[in-house]
Amino acid sequence: MDNRPIGFFDSGVGGVTTIPHIMRMLPNESIIFFGDTARTPYGSKSAKTIRQFTLQIGKFLRNNDVKMIVIACNTVSSTALELLRKTYTDIPIVGCITPTAKEVVKICDKDSRIGIMATKATVKSGVYEDKIKSLNRELFIKSIACPALVPLIEEGIIDNEIMDLTLRYYLDDFIKENDINTLILGCTHYPLISKNLKRLYPDIKIFSSSKEVATAVKMELEAADILSDKENAKSIFYASDLSENFVNMIERILGRDSDELNIKFKNLDI
Q1: pLDDT grade, residue 269 (50/70/90)?
Q2: Do the Cβ atoms of 224 and 91 come closer than 8 Å?
Q3: Among 19, 170, 213, 247, which one is most buried in terms of CB atoms within 10 A?
Q4: Measured between alpha carbons, how far is 74 from 231 in angstroms, rounded to an integer?
Q5: How far apart are CA 66 and CA 141, in angstroms?
Q6: Which residues are catalytic, by number?
Q7: pLDDT tier for residue 242 given thresholds of 50, 70 and 90
Q8: Sheet with 113-118, edge to edge strand ranges
Q9: Distance, CA of 19 to chain centre
Q10: How many other β-carbons are positioned within 10 Å of the β-carbon of residue 53?
């Protein structure tokens, strides 16, 4: 057993979408979450810059004595996962892409037409395609970068026509031209617009990386025998820019008032 917290981080608030799944699966686990809201989005930045940011956040989490680091961000998972693993060899580090790819391959078959919607950095890396193809070369896969979605989600622009129009702008032709019947949400922000996607494209099967990450975390903790048996587990949510939007989105995702949540500002002294 190990009652130390699990450290999660994301470029912004999107990674919080993994937390409800963790809380349901592992109610005894304490969590430290860091959202780099001052520098979001990561998806349009260079791989070098993303790696620099990742090492800074990894150091912050390590200094808080976490027992595991979870990269709740597909962009970081696609560009800096191995760097973080080489830097911190003594604790497990979980990314988004491999757990999602494994579940997709388990469910999909030769008739599946898989579309991956993600940030520019994730699409450019080709990691999703490479991982899925390494598990099943017969699957059809196409990717599309949707760079405007994360900024809109971070601003809380979700349940309105602007988001619907943006999704149609990116996806209508992409889905039609490639006959897509399965869609991977290759960004942990995207579960926040899953209702929009299901309403606009009701016949398409949707995979969320947030849920698959939570499942992978549970398996890693069990395998390493470092589950917590602590009752009344506590969570702390840090942001590099503690904006009203960040607080509002956490309340929305977790379904709790901010008075019940431990939300703090943390400057990484960049």
Answers
A1: low
A2: no
A3: 213
A4: 31
A5: 36
A6: 73, 187
A7: confident
A8: 140-145, 113-118, 182-186, 205-208
A9: 10
A10: 21
